[in-house]
Specification:
- Helices cover 28% and strands 27% of the residues.
- By secondary structure, it is of the alpha/beta class.
- Strand 4 and strand 5 form a beta hairpin.
- It starts with a strand and ends in a 7-residue tail after the last helix.
Amino acid sequence: MRQFIVLGHEAPTAPDFSLSDLAGGAGRLDVLCRCVNAGLFLSHGIREDSRVHLVLNDEYTVRFDGATAKRLYPNERAVASRVQGALESTADAIGHQPAEVSPGVELYRMDFASTLETVARDGTVVELHEDGEPLAEAEPAENPIFVLSDHHDFTDTEAAVLAETAARRLSVGPAVLHADQTMTVVHNWLDTAGYTDY
């Protein structure tokens, strides 16, 4: 299993946003939707061994699970619609018990620290950061959990939480990429067992 935790610092926490304005009125939800697409979809299929956790403004987390997702389509509007549906279900998320939005999509009333603590039980936490160790020089961990930010840097608080939890910090290359592009590079690295198996 490979997992991605993506922090959305301006992401909506209420469902009253327009699906036609994801880059503006929806707090750059377009960035997070592209991350779901990069994290779950192949050219003609879905990665059943992948999960993407979107942390919305440090208040809610929406989990997309490739193994159980149904009728989820690889476009920003379709993914945003699932996020909107999740935010319509906040009353059903009690404590750390999720609200089931649709097959493979759940909403948790959990901030970043709680999400990281919960997900970290399943594998090795890896921070993706431009100042990290080069990806090509690292060995892929078993059941990796990659943490990355949207178009903003990690806050000091988030960086401190990561410093306590992450086993390593990796960089995908010398150029700073978009979050979804970074995830695509990471998938390729894992798919090729660290660029050794083609």
